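Standup notes
- DV: blocked on the single-chain target, sequence here:
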Amino acid sequence: MCLFLALAGLMNTFIHVLMYGYYALAAIGPHMKPYLWWKRYLTQLQIAQFISIFVHGLMFCALQVDYPLFFQADALFQASMYLWLFGRFYR
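- DV (later): unblocked, structure below
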């Protein structure tokens, strides 16, 4: 479980570096538009990240017995909402 959390943290950091790099290039001006072709792939990476967070939430709910049900449901709800919102944005 600790290895998964470490990999999730690394994946999150990597995606955020790409995301803020994209934002920085986009903020330079409209002449950067030809270099911003990878927006679609960045969104796909974010969706993959939220799928892994949702799977982690399911594993968490299955393995934790004494953890309050509200927090388990909240973790799954947040992951599913991010997944739904980014899925809609992607379409």
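- Follow-up: The CA atoms of residues 66 and 72 lie 11 Å apart.
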